[in-house]
Amino acid sequence: MSGPLEVLVDGAACSQGWPQDRGLLYGDGLFETMLARAGRIRFESDHRARLADGCRRLAFNADLARIWDQAAVAAARHGNATLRLQVTRGEATARGYAPSGGEQARAILSVFPAPAVEELPTRVSVVTLRPCLGENPDLAGLKHCNRLEQVLGRQALAGRGAFEGLMASSAGFLISGTMSNVFLELDGELVTPSVERCGVAGVLRAVVLREAAPLAIAIRIATLPLAMLVRCTALALSNARIGLVAVHELDGRTLGRSPALEQLATRIAAL
Amino acid sequence: MSGPLEVLVDGAACSQGWPQDRGLLYGDGLFETMLARAGRIRFESDHRARLADGCRRLAFNADLARIWDQAAVAAARHGNATLRLQVTRGEATARGYAPSGGEQARAILSVFPAPAVEELPTRVSVVTLRPCLGENPDLAGLKHCNRLEQVLGRQALAGRGAFEGLMASSAGFLISGTMSNVFLELDGELVTPSVERCGVAGVLRAVVLREAAPLAIAIRIATLPLAMLVRCTALALSNARIGLVAVHELDGRTLGRSPALEQLATRIAAL
User: Fold this and answer.
1) HEC readout, A78-124
2) pLDDT tens, B145-182?
3) Are A260 and A190 in contact (CB under 8 A)?
4) CA of B264 vs chain A CAs: smallest distance (Å)
5) How far apart are CA B24 and CA A28, in angstroms?
6) What is the complex's ipTM, to 2 decimals?
7) Taking the mean position of all CA atoms in its chain, how far away is CA B6?
8) What pTM was computed for the model?
9) 3-state SS class at A209
10) Percent of chain B, pLDDT > 70?
């Protein structure tokens, strides 16, 4: 585009930063938060698959082979680390929401220390939150950078003394935690909410569903009205950083244990 | 936070940019697109009010008085221009979605040329789009930086030969265009969709509603199922950059003229 005549950041002329990156302008980006263990990215193929799906659905021009090569080099160099890989659509080439199609994706890889063992929760409490998740089938499942709903969720969680908060869709269906997917024991059956209308299709969620089969554990993907949480007898959270973690308390009510979910957690931790 | 151990951008060590700005990470920001005319920002008090509302609702630590002073100086220096003022929550001080509360907002003011007269549409055609807007009352009305739905809307509009596309909520109610609010003549009455559950409370929309009263023009804010568009007899789009613009064609159907909307457009252009 004919670029800006001037850019001021906090009142001063800006000679750095990417003030016209579409990730910054519109949250027009995707990300993966990953663990590196002994120099390798855990569940790399799942992260690759989700990022590729996002780039395809949002029509990013991204050299994913090169981006993953760079991530692998960083993982090997750091050994154990948390990697946050963000891919934005890139610098805006035109003003306004419409991509020109000529943008080239920007990859930002931030390397953080690996979670310390004492940081990793074992049994946690969760509460139900009021802020909701808007439904949008075109964005559902993606780990995109429009995350204000999760920010509102975390703000609502502050001071409530719980590790995680559960969020429902605007239509009143349980979807996920603010930063995790959920698995529930309900009427003697294991279920996890559908992420076809909103929510993130978590990498650990996919791993849990995949690992359940060889253990002959059935998990149904379901549309679950939030009110059914009163009938929930066991609950676990999943995300790539913490694994599959049992919940011992839901909205102040003590939950039971699910041997099947515990078996899955053990198996996945050993992968 | 204990910052990242390393940041690589497109594979190279990064010494510039704001890779940990929450605007980039999560779209955790707000923006205003404004016109400067003869050195002054048009409808500045409306833009100020909306940005202040957003900072309050999202709990940003922003020195708005200083930010607006800087915008006023830029407007005076450039005379006629398009100003895009983005305010992000600022640099992340902790990993994850939860703000620490210790972030200091970052203001990015990008100055673009004023729209050329020939760029400003007079009578335009619009089409209805398939991508929808998720409902979230906590975010509704705000001009925040989670704009992937609008990006999808503009992508769906590409190649359809229309100036703007209309978008419905996930619940099937007409909300707005991808970059404009809408005013409709329906069964002899003027209406504009509610933006209580999703959509942006446009500055020009507020101006139209305010200016209608002294002209004794009644405009009702309504919840409008998308299907009622077949009964629409006149339509206009509003945004701060283009003003209030008549639509002559909706999904291939020629619309009529609304003397009341034309009277409002003339009055607002003269403000």
Assistant:
1) HCCEEEEEEEECCECCCCCCCCCCCCCCEEEEEEEECCCHHHCCCEE
2) 999 999 999 999 999 999 999 999 999 999 999 999 99
3) yes
4) 26
5) 9
6) 0.96
7) 36
8) 0.96
9) helix
10) 99
The alpha carbon dihedral of B84, B85, B91, B92 has a sign of: negative
Query: What's the whole-number mean pLDDT along residues B183-198?
Result: 97
- C-alpha distances in angstroms, A199 versus A144, A154, A168, B172? 10, 15, 9, 20
Cβ-contact B142, B179 below 8 angstroms: no
Three-state secondary structure call for residue A207? helix
Which residues of B, range 36-75, sit inside 8 Å of A by Cβ? Answer: 58-59, 66, 70, 74
Chain A positions touching B134 (Cβ under 8 A) are 133-136, 139, 170, 198
pLDDT band at B119 (very low <50, low <70, confident <90, very high): confident
DSSP secondary structure letter of residue A244: E
User: Distance (Å) from the C-alpha of residue B132 to the closest C-alpha of chain A?
Assistant: 6
Give how far Cα A161 sits from Cα of A158, B50, B96, B255, Å.
7, 33, 17, 57
What are the tokens at B115?
């729209």
Instruction: Give the residue from chain A lying closest to B177, CA to CA.
Output: A97
Judge: B98–A145 Cβ closer than 8 Å, yes or no: no
Token pair 């980039």: residue: B24
Angle at B208 between CA B203 and CA B209, to 5 degrees: 100
pLDDT at B15: 74
pLDDT at B2 over 80: no
Q: Tell whether A20 is within 8 A of chain B (Cβ).
A: yes
- Ranges of residues in chain A with a pLDDT under 50 are none
- Residue A122: what pLDDT? 80
> Cα(B118)–Cα(A159) distance, rounded to whole angstroms?
54
| Per-residue pLDDT tens digits for B10-65 | 988 887 778 999 999 999 999 999 999 999 999 999 999 999 999 999 999 999 99
Tell me whether residue B164 is exposed, middle or buried, using C-beta atoms within 10 angstroms of its C-beta: 0 to 12, 13 to 18, 19 or more.
Answer: buried
- Model confidence at B1, in pLDDT bands (50, 70, 90)? low
A-chain residues within 8 Å CB-CB of B197?
Answer: 170
Residues of chain A with Cβ-Cβ distance to B20 below 8 Å are: 110
What SS3 state is found at B182? strand
Backbone angles phi, psi at A193, to 5 degrees: -65, 145
A6 touches chain B (CB under 8 A): yes
User: Is the Cβ–Cβ distance between A193 and A205 less than 8 Å?
Assistant: no
pLDDT of B117 above 80: no
